[in-house]
What we know:
By secondary structure, the protein is α/β, with parallel strands linked by helices. It folds into 4 domains: 9-44, no CATH class; 56-223, inorganic pyrophosphatase (n-terminal core); 345-460, Diaminopimelate Epimerase, Chain A, domain 1; 464-577, CATH 2.40.50.460. Helices cover 40% and strands 21% of the residues. It has 20 helices and 18 strands. The strands form 4 sheets. A 5-stranded parallel β-sheet has the order 3-2-4-5-6, sandwiched between helices. The chain has a 5-stranded mixed β-sheet with strand order 7-8-9-11-10. A 5-stranded mixed barrel has the order 14-15-16-18-17. A hairpin with a 2-residue loop joins strand 10 and strand 11. The protein starts with a strand and ends with a strand.
Amino acid sequence: MEKRWLVKPVADRSIIDQFPELNNIIVQLLFNRGLTSQAAIDDFLNPSYDDHSHSPFLFSDMEQAVGRIFAAIRQKEKIMIYGDYDADGVCASAILFSTLKAFGADVDIYIPFRDTEGYGLNQKVVKRIINQGFQLLITVDCGIANKEEIEILNQGGVAVIVTDHHQEPPTLPQALAIINPMVKNSGYPFPFLSGAGVAFKLCQALAISQEQLDFPVKLPAGFEKWLMDLVAIATIGDIMPLIGENRVLVKYGLIVLNQTRRPGLQKLIEATNGSAKIDSQYVGWRIVPRLNAAGRINHASVAFDLLTTDSVSVAAKLVDILEKNNKDRQNLTDKILREADKQVIEQVEKNKILWTVGDDWPTGILGLVAGRLCDRHHRPVLAVSRQQEATKKGGKYVGSGRSISVFDITAALKKNDHLLERYGGHSQACGFSVSGQDNFLKFQDSLSQLANQAITKEDLKSIVDIDADINLEEVNWNLVGELEKFAPFGEGNLSPLFLIRQLNIEQLYPVGNDGQHLKVIVSQNGSPAKHKLIGFSFGDWCAKLKVGDKIDIVFELGVNEWNGNRELQLKLMDLRLSS
Length: 579
């Protein structure tokens, strides 16, 4: 699929002249992010934990939640944390569990099975929790859409505190307290916290309040800051925008992660090439998939136990299990993806939203499959498992969706609330279940109509957003040093992409197994300066290019480190022959 290259508008000279001490490229990158005042630039380049974090008590229900939790601990009530099975949910569960344990609480954890119980509270489990004598239930990374289940808990004498970050449903549950920045009247100024970020704010409030309430068992000074490694992992893993408070939480969370006290994370880092720099990319590519693999393949308790164990030997065994789970997940994803792509390839020419349905596909793989197909075809994709054991009841369809920026897929689900058994998610990712084939076909038709109305043909063209058009001579170590101040990179603060035109190919050759990658040496305008390009999965270009050709490239600038050596790395994102 040919991509459209869109270079962002060039900053006006008057803006560039305001900051003579900054490289012009850096001013352009700041301008692209809407940062044109000295104060805004200082805040972005030098985020401060103390100055740029919000008080947890801005949540309108926070004082009520804190008071009820302390009362439960004092009265030795049984507390249940109800979590979720992805990296965000597992980290959120570990954050709250370890905090309540440190206070001496009688606390237990429940994380549902993805395949058999699905996301969020379910009625069988909440009835069991009532029968087991729990008096307080706290959800993490779920609960906002569980009105009926929370009503059952209320009737059973169990108080409920919801901590969540998913979109507000048409009707809120009647919980004792709701801590969710996405809820209209939450009172919190930053809406993009992860589930673990919300759990962290609750723990932060408990730490602050322990002095005021003269609580007998106190957290040690700085306890909550050692939770930030998990906040960083969850925020990156749940693809939350790394702007505002999230930028602060991830920046300092990565500092904590690099010196984490958790044996589980120490062993996981050792097993995933611990010599690499532990930054947002490392977390997203190496840590998060392994934590997610536990819940996708078996049960997320393995990931939770890894994050909470104090034993190095136990941690090593759990890492081995996660490594196996991750390999099984990769193999299963590849198998289902091949089946799914055969279905959607026939729809691409005529449909603006793609559907792929398989009998008893593992639900833990559906989001990965939908995400890969969405990236490949640049359309919203719904991957659905038709569950055969429910056939006698008319069939059950469990699905996961991924979308492009112009189509809010969870808002579309909300418009079909009457057809869905349950649902939740964000603007570009969702999960849902539908009972009965008739309901599913109506849902499929309705969602397709919404997509057809909202998405234009232009929207279906994959776009490469380019930050700046530069010259090869501007690529140097000084620029790399300035770019490092923009980290951490991720959703909402992507690593900058640069365009260089009219590069002359000096050398090129395939690299990697079967020559699937491309390495090119280039120069520009007869300058003796040369740079090396690496194009992962660009190996097929070797047959299309030759020495002496001129190319235009879009690339990401970074550093390649090996055996104590460092070199500038221009990582190809796209290329074409110069016109």
